[in-house]
Specification:
Length: about 240
């Protein structure tokens, strides 16, 4: 069913700084989801799914509730999603998603990270044309045919459907991301998603070695340390 997509397995480091960054990012995303639609979990499917994902990552309920309550108020901080594209060492490329209440501050931090390793940001679409914007879910289940039929019955045409050692991975258009989860959960009500993300996936991956790999890892670390950065996508096999 077309080209297979590599699934990026997210591993959350259990350090205080990493958890604080994780909580902050989820709080901003939940605030935006609540602000865009109805600020009620049961009436806003995007918000509901995001809250489920946050709880799976052990984000405390008070952080979730404060973000939703904040969206109900007026005159609060306004967060903007801004995406940057950049070039790393070798043939590496990166897409950096940010959630910020100060665009000038954020672009300054992102540009400084690239400057420190003598690499540069690109203009819009200088990198993203080499990526696909997809919703991807992975989960363990033994009956591939049952899941595939449920997907088709829901009127969803998968971009890709894989089964590797009992783990099913389905890639869909982002607009079908919530629909695919609804279809899966009619069969597996308490499904445990090993991967669940809407994001940018590189069409082709590259391998870096030696100094290029060291520089890339340093750049990745610098970007991950920026509080406003919510997601980083790249084309490097790590």
């Amino acid at each position: 069913m077309g080209r297979a997509y590599e699934v990026r397995k997210a591993s959350i480091q259990k350090t205080g700084a990493a958890k604080a960054k994780l909580y902050s990012t989820f709080a901003k995303e939940i605030y935006l989801a609540a602000k865009k639609g109805v600020p009620e979990i049961e009436s806003n499917i995007s918000l509901k799914r995001l809250v489920e994902k946050a709880k799976k990552q052990q984000v405390p309920s008070d952080i979730i509730n404060r973000a939703i309550d904040k969206a109900k108020g007026a005159g609060q901080d306004e967060y903007t999603k801004v995406v940057y594209e950049g070039f790393g060492p070798g043939a590496s490329t990166l897409i950096i998603e940010t959630l910020t209440d100060n665009v000038n501050r954020t672009v300054g931090f992102v540009r400084a990270a690239f400057n420190k390793v003598h690499k540069s940001l690109g203009v819009s679409n200088s990198v993203s044309y080499n990526y696909d914007y997809l919703g991807v879910v992975s989960f363990a289940y033994s009956n591939e045919e049952e899941i595939f039929n449920a997907v088709l019955e829901a009127g969803i045409e998968p971009v890709d459907f894989e089964n590797e050692d009992g783990e099913i991975t389905i890639s869909v258009r982002p607009t079908d991301h919530n629909k695919i989860k609804d279809a899966i959960e009619t069969i597996i009500p308490n499904v445990d998603y090993t991967f669940d993300e809407v994001g940018m996936f590189a069409k082709e991956k590259i391998t870096l070695k030696g100094e290029d790999l060291e520089i890339f890892n340093r750049l990745l670390g610098l970007l991950e340390d920026i509080e406003d950065v919510s997601n980083i996508y790249h084309n490097v096999n790590l």
